[in-house]
Amino acid sequence: MKDELRSVTRRDFLKCLAKLAPAAALASSGLKLGTIFASEEPGGSEGEGHWYGMGIDLERCIGCGRCSEACKEENDVPREPYFFRTWVERYVVTVDREVSVDSPNGGIDGFPPPDIEEQHILRSFYVPKLCNQCARPPCVQVCPVGATFETRDGVVLVDEKYCIGCRYCIQACPYGARYLDPQTRVADKCTFCYHRITRGLRPACVEVCPNSARIFGEIRNANTPLWRFVRTNELQVLKPHLRTEPKVYYNSLDSEVR
Amino acid sequence: MPSQVKRLILLFGIAAAALVLVRFLLVPDSFGRYGHYRADAVDEVAGMEIRYAGHLLCQECHDDVDAVKSGSMHEAVSCEACHGPGNEHAEDPFENRLSAPRGRRRCAYCHSYNPSRPTGFPQIEPDEHGGEEPCITCHNPHQPEPLVGIEDCEACHTEIAKTKSKSHHLSLHCTTCHATQERHPGAPREMRPDKPRTRSFCGQCHGEDASSPETIPRVDMATHGEDYLCWQCHYPHFPEGRR
Amino acid sequence: MEELLRHLAEAQQQITGYIYPNEIELHWGLVIVLYPFITGLVAGAFILASLERVFNVKEVQPTYRLSLLTALAFLLVAPLPLLAHLGHPERAFEIFLTPHLQSAMAMFGFVYAWYLTVVLLLEVWFDYRRDIVVWSRTYRGWRRVLYSILSLGVVSTSEESLKFDERAGRFITIVGIPSAFLLHGYVGFIFGSVKANPWWSSVLMPIVFLFSAIVSGIALVLLIYMVSSWLRKHPIDMPCLDKLGQFLFYALILDVSLELLDFVHRLYEAEESIDILAQMVQSRLFTSRVVVQALMGTVVPLVVLAVVRALKPRELVRKVAYFGTGILILVAIFFMRWNVVLGGQLFSKSLRGLTVYKIGLAGAEGAVTAGILTLLPFVILIVLVRLLPPWSGKSGVREVGQQTHSS
User: Fold this and answer.
1) For residue C399, is pLDDT > 50?
2) Predicted ipTM of the assembly
């Protein structure tokens, strides 16, 4: 009796396996791996058809810092040098392969000549930084109440009326893109100038960039400047190993940039 | 069922009901419409006031300036990059006027020499260039070319010019070694200047049988440096330095 | 705001290397150091209590109720440091209204509610229920009212109902052990799951937090037991104290092993971040990490406890040794939290520079608040001990329960 019971279960089990096998084969044939670059639109077909992103042409950045300035003007960011939605970093690599980085006041007041004598400079360049508007945003993942979120057009925003100010999102952001607004006591960050882009304007930093180093557009829309930038450049994103899938794309990005 | 359990179930039941009720009353209406957030927040952020009007709006009135600017080196520089945020001005042009930067500081944000800037971008040494005159004395910011008073490569290749100025190659003009088409200044990337390609090019001055002045260092082109090209060891813009 | 800006300007002067401009403000300060410290004490004290209840370690019986009350006192204070540091404490209730299920921090609401109400309060209630009923009959005035409310109207002291209390208490303790692990493991997970931060991001983090919690909980109850005995002029139960010392020793060995494993693993893998982390430990964290946590708080207690176990010196020496190591360990575990929480923010995520942390005195997140929050659990404990005396002697529920069990 006992044996019979066991054999029945075994047969059932094998039957079950037989059913599973083709399913497993099917699943592996459609093997889908995560990518460095964002590939899944958050709104899907339900969304509003936009999926915003930004390109940064490092070969064109002249480190004038007008983007940092305009950002603070446009978004009422506190003027003190501890709160930035975007800033410009300067990298200097010496012939001894030492790297020094600075960003005095985010670049708003311009960059003084570097401390390092020119003969000792191997290469040097500027890198504008901002919220990477990740497609897998760690800040959204950790927000305990749903006060920071990704809109259906792919912009990560903060709900300033709902944020409790726990600052977990600031800790979770790998890019240092978030700060606590000293007046409102809630987390704040770059919105891609959501109030501008939804009215058909470019983000303030893109608008004032005098050398067209910042390119704004939509990832899926071939009629936006970003499309051309993405098509004609080899792209990198910051800290790809963290699999945040940033939607801010850099060209000619040096590996020293973190 | 023991009376303890009955009583506890009652208490926990009340607490759970209270939580459900409070949740029902306090969760914002639009929460969860699209995702785990307050959908109204999206509209609130989108409803913020703008400060920078955008160059398209400027052009509607200032089409004359736009005509001057288009086609110039500053074509892609939007109005508000120099004149500041202009939305208030656009709403009431006479009440809110924008200023035009007239000093040297604003131009220097982009054009003062800094080795970190990309080579080829026009840069000057503010301390040495043009005395203390405001930039606009010589340059029209809406149409900066043709460059007034400067026709040399230095305007763009400041970094190289600066290095070269410290070297023995100071007196050599760039075109001595780089054959350059006339159109290069207008289309720097499309019309690239030529570069020396052979050892014998340097030998014209540094070879033992060269006809150059005697103070110039000479080497035996046949044996010196074996098969290496000269610039693999010597930086032509600063030959004194080691590579 | 003025104060903050002055503070930031000062900090900016002391930065070495490059840090992102938004990183000058250090966001999780002293009160967030307190939070894992306090929850750790809760978890540790509870696990100590469960030793007696579930694993039948009879020696530690005198500390059973004391451990429970200690855990409760500290658990009541645990959310306060979190509340103090919020930018908008008045919105804290949102964490219960719309908890974001992907967020480790949102789980706080659930874990806390579960642990407080289902585990601790219930266990205390079942354990004290008979006493509460007796007190509600013997006392007069407000105490009578209070005990009547606490009894929740369940007044039966029949043998059957007491037997049920005993069984329920035991069941809750069994549920409580994984819950205590969850409570503190989850606190470790809050830090361990931040992939952006190489100092925090580690699978060992929850486990290290857990074992350090057990160590700190045992040390705390040991100290409270000694002090309360002196205050009550009761002789200290030496077998109990020795047993506590023994568990402290074992727990400490486990804790140290785990931390060493984490340390060696980091050093051996030597990833991208190792240079900046090494610099941080050698400079900014040297005193708190190397001197206080590792030497004073780990090596010294290990040696002392080992010597005590090996040589069995006379009672007074043992008491002094236990008391001293208890204090050292508590300080060390506090600084372990300090080194984790603050260490994770002293280096830039650009891995190119270090910033500084300065304790503010005033303000919701300042040293004064932290001091109050540290003392508060002891005040609550005194009140709890007055209301629910843990030393009820031979007439205690446990004995009754056991008698019914054996009969």
Assistant:
1) no
2) 0.91
